[in-house]
């Protein structure tokens, strides 16, 4: 057994034996055979790899990544050279207190992240000029596609036509084309000046555009809206350019989108980085993504929370505003902190340097007759038309610079680290001349003055208080201390698999030849990335049994979308485009029906039986009824109810017999790896949550990756990237901006698989199942009701505790349990999903027996408190559960009818290590009734 297996798995061999005996078994394999139906177990091996030590795996990956050549990136096309301030890199990007936290659904123990995200929103609000911003979206291209869909929801009276300016980034256009087809939106692509406002519901403009031109569209947009008042204008803007130039709101746009990558977020061969979206207040309920809002807690203190959550999928399902489930929170935080640390003066200095050097290069190139496609003002990009562009790309790469190339045009985009020496060198490389001329700033940028913004930006004190490293370091630590993450305790969230994110797995992300690689850099300079991605693909194919794996999807929900896309494209190719029915069990994730709707499918719900399993008879009936138009089944396995359904192979066969395909949601793959292969169960395609099963950290709500595994017949229909794939693109339009999604974080999963090896992967799965059953057994003995179980009364890797009888008897709700667990130092399990009034608990394989017992003790003690409410020993309203969580402010001025010890230190161990929530219970309804999403109303 490799040393890393012992580091990753929380149980010692002795603890494993003890827990097995507790459950009535003397052998782990005997126990697993009692949990998983024998006919589902795979007889084939997985990766066949022997686990390496941390040092060995890092050395292997370093050798591989040495094939990457970290050229100075001047490629542009939506990704830019930036410098991550060391204080942010070390204290946020490389800090498990930030990267291991969960999405801030439990706001009382997430106030630090929420404040950081509020800063991000304020930054976006200021720079775009709008009233409202979200926090955040996946990447610029998907944000653009979301904006198109949002525009259609708003302008319902318009046609189904959407005008896209031909000078948008090619990957953005590609993703818009993918999304438009299945939303039945007709795209008109051309010069924006030729747009007929009367025939479209909206328009999309890139500013600066593909060629780098910065334009004030105010008069043009005003003219469009005069002809069509309800027309929606979406403008994609470079965030750094907005430090200088007029905001999209000032120009008359309705929605702004873009990327915040160049605010200190490493390139990472395409990600992760956070996209932004901003709009008018009146459109807040149609906006996708998460919005951080201001509310008050039980003491009237201002507090933050995620606002307007009724828009989200788990409530609205196929009627949700989007299927977004993962945002790029860690990266949004980094971008917001970048603005906080630099302040407005620092950002203006960076933006002015970038545009000065770009215009200086452009002026010199024009002087000697180089054919530039730029007209008027440029910010950071020039586009060059040459007879032999590839020769220039190779020449510059040989001299340390990566330039962009698309459809015969060379792109030169200058970023934060550019110097005058770089500009002179680029001039010489492009022209073969050495007569570079320096020009003063006033003369060089005179034509830009008319485009400059007149309004003040970033005036909130947070953007002026932390410009020294000492103050910034303390600010970051103060925010971090307000949150619970995996550095504090187990996060037992069902379906989210909050396992160890090992330091060795994350270490490569800070290597220069991993962090600084542009996704569209010359292919000769990215050999290490290509080898690592191919290696991970092979690992995942072996683990899942599929014939191919696509790495492009940027999240689990986007993996769902890509899986259905491959299915629909395949069915189109065999003349079965009319298949539009998607069967989805009622137990499914909310993203499933939302994704199906985005793919133009009609959702038909399939019933579940009293044990939580798919009702096979109902499935057969509906599959047969829709055999002529059945597209697919979307099913989660093990089920969302946390059990291994013995009928899964029969279920898949029923769908195939009726002409459909099977999409398997891989959210619960942590119960399968090394034991069961989705492809062998009958699935045609399945997404793989790398941020769950394969150790990518949740980052407070992102990043994530959701690659899909699929069978051979679907492989030809996978999305490609118009820039990276070039001639092989073949109109297989994209789902993400970059060819491998958030490519840098794939190194985490490669390290995870490589260090665990086949034996470690299998043991991890078995341990996760053991831990879940150990918790379920002890909670059941204590008096909790485990809602669903599979064969022999066992659960899979998670269990659902039914609190509805307790609520009916005492008035104590699942929310009260969740808040009270904070007083015990725990983040709550998944609440009210997939069944209202329940908690879904998943301990993962990384937790020790001590930690499992500590959580069990907390749950048992809370049940005893419920009994005291029932017996009248605690008041029905003024009791430890209804008042939870208890803050430091409570302790200072105690006014409860029970002791401070009961409220704040309900178990003896808490006196040694106590985490106080920074606020009391937050009033969600107040926050939605009094919607506020900016820093000024929080201060």
UniProtKB/TrEMBL annotation:
- What cofactor does its activity depend on? pyridoxal 5'-phosphate
Q: What is its EC number?
A: 1.4.4.2
Question: What positions does the domain Glycine cleavage system P-protein N-terminal occupy?
Answer: 6-428, 464-718
Does the record's keyword annotation contain Oxidoreductase? yes
Residues annotated with N6-(pyridoxal phosphate)lysine modification:
692
Q: Which UniProt key words apply to this protein?
A: Oxidoreductase, Pyridoxal phosphate
**Could you give a single Gene Ontology term from the biological process aspect?**
glycine decarboxylation via glycine cleavage system
Query: From what superkingdom does this record's organism come?
Result: Bacteria
Keyword flag Transmembrane: no
Q: Name one GO cellular component term.
A: glycine cleavage complex
Q: Name one Pfam family in it.
A: GcvP2_C
The record's catalysed reaction(s) read: N(6)-[(R)-lipoyl]-L-lysyl-[glycine-cleavage complex H protein] + glycine + H(+) = N(6)-[(R)-S(8)-aminomethyldihydrolipoyl]-L-lysyl-[glycine-cleavage complex H protein] + CO2
* Recorded coiled-coil stretches: none
Query: What range(s) does the Glycine dehydrogenase C-terminal domain occupy?
Result: 764-886
Sample GO molecular function, one term = pyridoxal phosphate binding
> What's this protein's family per the entry?
Belongs to the GcvP family.
Annotated function: The glycine cleavage system catalyzes the degradation of glycine. The P protein binds the alpha-amino group of glycine through its pyridoxal phosphate cofactor; CO(2) is released and the remaining methylamine moiety is then transferred to the lipoamide cofactor of the H protein.
| Assembly and interaction partners | The glycine cleavage system is composed of four proteins: P, T, L and H.
Which NCBIfam families does the record cross-reference, listed alphabetically?
A: gcvP (TIGR00461), PRK04366.1 (NF003346)
The protein in question is named: glycine dehydrogenase (aminomethyl-transferring)
